[in-house]
Structures
1.
Amino acid sequence: MPRQAIHSDSAPKAIGPYSQAVRAGNTLYLSGQIPLDPATGALVGGDIAAQATRVFDNLQAVLAAGGATFDDVVRVAIYMTDLGHFGAVNEVMARYFHAPYPARSTIGVAALPKGVAVEVDVIAVTAG
């Protein structure tokens, strides 16, 4: 099955040898997004809610470039350096998704790229 790299200028450029997303058939695999401002490449400051909002906005831009929306997302993986932020990140996520919600894992990790507190990746399945 051929793979197609997906790119959005409205999301941060990859900071390594990977694509923002890859489409394989009707499935879109998005790389993890961290709270980087796509216009400046700088980390977004503020509390965890502000950072998570930037992460989900970045994901939304990549989904759109792949012809998808959050309604097409079937799987979410959230990585956090402090699981004490679980509730705040849930509140942000709830602004982007509605029932039926995608499957999800939340994983506590020791560190994330650039020292950020949260990273999220998703898998979406589109109609065509």
2.
Amino acid sequence: MFGGGGLNPRKMQQMMKQMGIDVEELDAEEVIIRTGDEELYFDGAQVTKMDAQGQETYQIVGEPNVRETGADEADALEEGEAAADDGGIPEADVEIVAQRAGVTESTAREALEENDGDLAAAVSQLE
């Protein structure tokens, strides 16, 4: 950046401070960069924030892992379709109401549907 290949790091920091450039190391646990079709995520990356005359710049040093974003969206869509097939009531909610009220799952599902998915109202109705 400044051509200081052989400069002492302390001297480099002093020069940057004189030029109004503030550098800060961030203790980042994870960094995620999302693009249209994939995510780059860095675990334990070294992140440096540089503030030069009000303009902040972040530098990430580390090896990224890559995952496609389309696969996550397809899984979520399939789960949503399964919930919609059952009248929009998630199976976990049906199980909770059935267990709390001591009734069958079909009775619990009916109570949830009558109460627009409100767990507390369904349990109250069944007790």
